[in-house]
Amino acid sequence: MSATKIKSSNESKMKNFCHNLPKIELHAHLNGSLSCQTLTKLFNMKHARDTNHENFDVEKCNSLTEIFDVFSLAYSVTETPEAVYTATYDTIKEFYEDNVIYLELRSTPRACEKMTKKEYILAITQAIKDCKKSNLSIKVKLLISVNRKQGFKAAKENIRLAIEMKQEHDCIVGIDLSGDPTKGEAFIELLHIARTAGLKIAAHCAEVPNEVESMDIIKFKPDRLGHGTCIHPLSNGSEELYETFLSSKIPVELCLSSNIMCKTVPTYDAHHFKYLYESKHPLCICTDDKGVFNTTLSKELILVMKYFNLSENDLIKLMKSTASYAFASCIEKNELIEIIDGFSKSAENTVKVTKNFK
Ligand SMILES: [Zn+2]
């Protein structure tokens, strides 16, 4: 067999494995996760009664090359509860089709002319409930996001809503601190209130160099950190920050395509996955914004296999440890681990059968 043929057969084996592996996604923003199909559907829903609107199709959506354009399109087509419901339902279905068995979506509640923040959250929780009713075998949880840029008042309101609504909607499990890392602040005192009320905290941290704030966030000890890019001294962090981070053992959510496309990491080889994995720091692989970065969780795992030489077994282990970082109950986490173990055994059996056959 020629070298090219071996390479392509290895690649397709890798692809199949990553697709079939039962996966856990812990860092997915709803708006950024909307696929071109969903965006097109929402655009046409919005303009259904408007005969003058410009024709919009999937091809046109695919041709949007600027990250900002995709985000602003997603924002403009999710301004009613119906649109937010469809966006959520379709996104969950797409993760399910990629064999994601557990998904944590995150979203900033939005108030506009046709919707209150509460109605926004209700549309999402309803879609989560309806996916469960349609027997999609994927468990879905929601983190309410606090956007740094929107300021203290909005952050306080979002956290109040999360605390109030989690009583009736058990899919609401946590708070996500996100938004432009160069604007606003981390609202640590509000995160304390959320934690005391029983919510888990995932905080975007060190996306850009900001040693003082990164240290404050790490010392607050969120349940998970997003990105953690500028922590290592070679990535515009510092020795002290890196040591504090390693000893904190806070699981970090790594999003490879997102970091490359946003240019916060120069190349895949240089991604902080490498030294964090080698240091055995708890970590998981996530998509961040699968629609904007045209990715899937399977594709992100392929990148990890390709650039960091992880084996199938390494990925199974990685996925099982990811289950333990989920904002789910112990029973749910054990169920996820059992599903992955079941897959792992059937994968071993396939190897044995092939071996016997030979
Ligand atoms: Zn993110």
Features:
alpha/beta, TIM Barrel, 2 domains, 8-stranded parallel beta sheet, globular, binds zinc ion
Q: What do these coordinates show?
A:
The chain has an 8-stranded parallel β-sheet. It has helices at 3-20, 30-33, 36-46, 58-62, 67-76, 81-97, 117-133, 151-166, 188-196, 211-220, 239-248, 256-261, 273-278, 297-308, 312-324, 330-357; strands spanning 23-29, 100-107, 139-147, 172-178, 200-205, 224-227, 252-254, 283-285. The longest helix is centred in the C-terminal third of the chain and has 28 residues, at 330-357. With 358 residues, it is of the alpha/beta class. It has 2 domains: 27-205, Alpha-Beta Barrel (TIM Barrel); 206-310, no CATH class. The radius of gyration is 21 Å and the shape is globular. Bound molecules: zinc ion. Zinc ion binds at residues 27, 29, 178, 204, 226, 288.
SSE blueprint:
Blueprint: H1 3-20, E1 23-29, H2 30-33, H3 36-46, H4 58-62, H5 67-76, H6 81-97, E2 100-107, H7 117-133, E3 139-147, H8 151-166, E4 172-178, H9 188-196, E5 200-205, H10 211-220, E6 224-227, H11 239-248, E7 252-254, H12 256-261, H13 273-278, E8 283-285, H14 297-308, H15 312-324, H16 330-357
Parallel strand pairs: 1-2, 2-3, 3-4, 4-5, 5-6, 6-7, 7-8
Helix pairs in contact: 1-14, 3-6, 6-7, 8-9, 10-11, 15-16
Bound molecules: zinc ion.
